[in-house]
Amino acid sequence: MEILAYGVQQDERPLLEQAFAQRHALRSLAVFLNRDTAPLAAGHPVVSSSVNDVLDAETLAVLAAGGTKLIAQRSTGFNNIDLDAAAELGLTVARVSYYSPYAVAEHAWALALAVNRRLTRAANRSREFDFRLDGLMGRDIHGMTVGVVGTGKIGECFARIAHGFGTTLLGWDIAPNPNCLELGMTYVEREDLLARSDLISLHVPLLPATHHLIDAEALATMKNDAILVNSSRGGLIDTAALVETLRSGRLSGVGLDVYEEETGLFFFDRSVEGIDDDVLARLMTFPQVLVTSHQAYFTRTAVGQIIDATVRNIHDFEAGHTNENTLVPKNTDT
């Protein structure tokens, strides 16, 4: 059986090919899956998708018509997949429910440290042999109050690193994490966390209840010199409201690995033609903003775990089994 994988990054390809070499043929495509590229999957019973693929009802219908039975998504997030449409079409859908939380937490801290100490500006200056310190003053992380919004596996890892810096920890979640409580974290209401924190990092999933969790009202609650980091999902932040907040001279640093309209932008080279997203373009003009292209997960360890889970999802599907990664089970009537 040949598996078709969409949205395969150059560094990811050899790991994928090695993982499938013993049992299945693998065809890797750099293009992303959408209604225009879905016909390429004709004749492939298994399609592996990436987080920036668009698996809407129309795309899924094309896949089903071409003989696809299983969609094995290589990510934890699945808000890009119309699960109801998949179920109606008899498509099984699986994701990767776990991979190294350290990868994302460490990248979130890399963003926080970089914007706090103005590392991008400093590096750009030094390349021009400009070694002045003007405008580069940061703050000690030690002694800060750090707010962790979402204290699951990744949030806990972020909190452990924060604890190592010697910070005061505040948390917000539907239920306290006992491991975070052991670190000395105090759970408070979201508004209290936003108002008291010097640094805020987002680690909740994107759900209807969390869409634009950080909106104009939430941003107004934050300290004028607060640092905001998002390595979870772009839709957690109302980007237009964030731009207005920055325009007013508030927030000393913003580190984003995700953006709510990143599909069609992130993972592509737009250096020649530029972009027509005025909100993102304006956001990136602020010197205290650092944007990376959804790479927090992109370590050898995490990608290896994602691939291993994807292989297991496919093998379990072949055997007629479900596992903890199954989002839409196999339709036994088809």
Automatic annotation (TrEMBL):
Annotated D-isomer specific 2-hydroxyacid dehydrogenase catalytic domain residues: 8-326
GO molecular function, one term: NAD binding
Domain annotation D-isomer specific 2-hydroxyacid dehydrogenase NAD-binding: ranges: 110-296
Gene3D superfamilies: NAD(P)-binding Rossmann-like Domain
InterPro entries reported for this sequence: D-isomer_2_OHA_DH_cat_dom (IPR006139), D-isomer_DH_CS (IPR029753), D-isomer_DH_CS1 (IPR029752), D-isomer_DH_NAD-bd (IPR006140), D-LDH-like (IPR058205), NAD(P)-bd_dom_sf (IPR036291)
CDD domains in the cross-refs: LDH_like_2 (cd12183)
UniProt entry keywords in alphabetical sequence: NAD, Oxidoreductase
PANTHER family to which the protein is assigned, alphabetical: 2-HYDROXYACID DEHYDROGENASE HOMOLOG 1-RELATED
Family: Belongs to the D-isomer specific 2-hydroxyacid dehydrogenase family.
Protein name as annotated: Lactate dehydrogenase
Biological source species: Kitasatospora indigofera
Phylogenetic classification of the source organism: Bacteria, Bacillati, Actinomycetota, Actinomycetes, Kitasatosporales
